[in-house]
């Protein structure tokens, strides 16, 4: 059963893991050292609740796009405070575009055809399940999965970013994907043969 736009907007908290994943993908190493991604997401959720009457969409996809804009603004504000620079609308548009690209990569991991409204609803639910499952990975595995699959970095670049050897990064990636499959497995599905 598809949810109405009102039901979507009332369940903004359900999107926390999705938003947190997008923020982590945007923060550079300097910002990660000084900004707490969960604080940025909390501010975005508060802003979304305050502005929920302004949401005019009717689908979960429209809600996700609306939340990404709010998240981009919250992230830009946090980064601006960090940099103590004046407001830069170009940077905010750049953050919105980068959040959109990260979200597209996340959706690409699902590889679900989007032909009907019911299939789009299922895709949105699966997107949230995937974000929640990624959040459930051990920190080092989560980081390599995000960097490689969602940020699009080559394994060698991932290894460099996390300060490990390439074989160590490959091992983390392998274990992370295996654990991700386990977390995404439907209840009752057999774990044999995987």
Number of domains: 2
Radius of gyration: 17 Å
The ordered string of helix (H) and strand (E) elements is HHHHHHHHHH
Number of helices: 10
Structural class: mainly alpha
Please tally the β strands and state the result. 0
The helix fraction, in percent, is: over 70%
Approximate strand percentage? under 5%
The end-to-end span amounts to 31 Å
Basic shape: globular
Output mean pLDDT. 76
Largest sheet: none
Unreliable parts: 110-115
Overview of this protein structure:
The chain is mainly α. The protein has two domains: 5-135, no CATH class; 138-194, Arc Repressor Mutant, subunit A. 73% of the residues lie in helices and 0% in strands. The protein is built from ten helices and no strands. It has helices at 5-10, 16-26, 29-34, 37-50, 60-83, 89-110, 117-135, 139-150, 155-162, 166-184. Helix 2 (16-26) packs across helix 4, helix 2 packs across helix 7 and helix 9 (155-162) packs across helix 10 (166-184).
Descriptive key words:
Arc Repressor Mutant, subunit A, 194 residues, single chain, mainly alpha
Question: Quick summary of this structure?
Answer:
The chain has two domains: 5-135, no CATH class; 138-194, Arc Repressor Mutant, subunit A, CATH 1.10.10.10. Helix content is 73%, strand content 0%. The chain has helices at residues 5-10, 16-26, 29-34, 37-50, 60-83, 89-110, 117-135, 139-150, 155-162, 166-184.
